[in-house]
Design a protein that fits this description.
625 residues; alpha/beta; Rossmann fold; 4 domains; 12% strand; globular
Length: 625
Amino acid sequence: MKINFENNSIIIDNLDQLKTRHLSQLSMWGFKKSNDERLFLSADINNMMPKVIRYLDKSNLQYSITDSCKIILDEINKIENQFNQLLTLGKSFKDGLINKDIFNDHIDFLQSKLNRKLKDHQLKASCHLFLIKNGANFSVPGSGKTSVVLSVFERLRLNKDVNTLFIIGPPACFGPWKNEYLEVFGRKPNSVVLAGGNRVQRKSFYYQSNSIADLYLTTFQTLLNDQDDVLAFFKNKNVNIYCVIDEAHYIKQLNGNWANAVLKIAKFSKYRCVLTGTPIPKSYLDLFNLFDFLWPDNHPIPNEDKASLSIIEDKKLYKKAHEILEPRIGPLFYRVRKSELGLKSQIFNQPNLIEMNKYEKIIYTAIQNKIRDYAKKDYLQNIDFVNRLRRGRMIRLRQCLSYTKLLITAIDNYDEELVSDNDLKKIIYIYDDIEKPSKLIELCDHVKHLQEISQKVVIWAHFIGTINLIEKTLIELGYYCKKIIGSTPIERTSIIDEDTREKIRDEFVLKNSGLDILIANPAACAESISLHKTCFNAIYYDLSYNCAQYFQSLDRIHRVGGSENNEAYYHFLQYKDTIDADILKSLNLKAKKMYDIIDGDYNIYSLDMFDDTDEIEAYERLFSK
C-alpha cells in the first residue's frame, strides 16, 4: 500500500491489505473510491494526513509514503512541534516558571516604549500574549484587555512582524480602540472605519497597496458582506496583519455566518487574538470557534474532543471537561479576575422606595389584576403561545413601572388587550396632561443633589419613550444632558454633523466638559462603553430581567483606570408593592452567581444579551401559583 499526495489530495494506492473495517473507517473520515480503485481525500489535509498514518500504524498495516507525502508530513510535524513548544511556554508562564530574563526583557520594553504605564496584571497578560503570539484574553470587563493587545502589537510592529492592526467587533468598540491607541502610544492612529457608508466607498480601502493604515475597524456584519474584499486585503503581500476579534462571544455559534467569515480570513493574518470576558456563555461549544480562529492549522481542540465535550456537557461532568480542555487551551489564554484588579468597592445603596402617583397606580393595579385573571386560563393554550403572552404581559407591567404612556406602544409578537375600560384607556392617552411619574420627580431630586456636589451620573432606563421623557424633563429644568440609545449613530465615515455615541461618551467623560448627565439604554450602551474615569454614580430608573445587560452596565463605572481610587455608587428607584422588588432581587441573585462563576476558567453561565427566559420565569413565579 502506498500513501501519496497529489492534486491537493491524499491518495491511497494498492488496497489489498485493507479489510472491510479499515475501508469503513476511512470512509467515515471522508475517503472516497476513484474509478481506478484508489482512495482519495481532498479536505482537511493537515489534520487527516497524520491521522491516517497513525491509524495505519496502530492497525499494523504495511505501507510506504511518497516524497511529496513526506514533505507534507514533515511540514505538519514541524508546525505541531512549534505549537507544542508554545503550549509548554504558555503553561510555564501561567505556572510562574518562565525565565525571568524573558519576562524582564518584555517589561523593559513596555516601560520604555509605551506612553501609558500598565498595571501589574496587564504586564503579565501582555507578556503571556507576546510569548504565545496567537492567544486569548478572557479577563473580566474593565481589566484593560485593549491596552494589553496594543502593547503586544507595538512590540511586533517594531520587530517588523506586523504593520497594521485589524479589529473586528461590535460598533461600540470602535471609539475605545482609537482612544486607547492614543492613550497607550501617545500618538493618534491613522485609522479606517470599515462600516457604514456604502460598499463601493469601502472597497477602495481594501485595495490600497502602498497606503496601509495603523488601525482598521470593522463589524462582524460588514466582514460578512465584504468578505471577498477583506480576504484580498489580508492576502496583500504588503500587509502583515495583527487581527483581533473583540467581544469574541459574538462568533460562538458553530457554522454561523459571522463565525464562518472570521474563520475564512484567519490563516491570512500574521498574528491573531480574541478578547471576551465571557468565553463560555452557554456551552463548551462556544470555545471551538475562538481557538480554531487563533490556530487554524492546529485546531487546539481536536474534532474527537469536541464530540466528547458535547456528551460530557449533557451529563454535566464539568470536572471531566476541565481535564480535557486545560492541557489543550489552558496555556493559550490569560484571565484576570475581578478580585485581582485592586479596585475600590461597589456600593449598592438600598432601593429608594417610592409611592406611585394616583393614576399610574390605578393603571398598574388594573393591568396586574387582568394578568392574574388571564393566568388562570393559560393552561388551555399551546406552551409557545403562552410564553409569548407571558413575556408580553411582563413587558406591559414593566412599562407601567417606567412611564404609563408607554402602554400605547406596540410589542412585537404580542397583541392582547389588558385595558378594556374606556376611562382607563383615556387616562393612558392623556397621561402627560394629568400627572408626572413619581419616579421622575424623585429622579430630578436625585440629579439635583448630584449636580450640587459636582458629581457626574449615568441614568439607566430600558424604554426609549422613558429616556426621551427624562431628557425632555431635565432640559426643561435647565440641565445639560445627552442620551445614548439604539438609534444614536456609531462613529463611521459617512457621519459628519451628528452626535455619535463616541462623541457623546467622550464629552461626558471629560471632567470639565459641562456634560454631567448621561441617559442610556443598557442594550445600546452596556458593552464597550467606559464611563469610569470621571463618573462614579449610576441611577437605575427602571430594570429588566436581563441579567446580562445589568451585569455589563454595572461595570461601565467600575473599571481599571479610575476605580482604583474611587468607589462606584449604584442607586435604584423602586415603586412600593410592585414587581420592581422582584426584578431587583432576581438580578442581584443572578449577578452574585455570575461573579462567583466567572472566577472559574471552564464554568458555563448564561450571558445571552437577548435571552427572554428570565421574564417567563418571573411570570411563573409571580402569577402561576
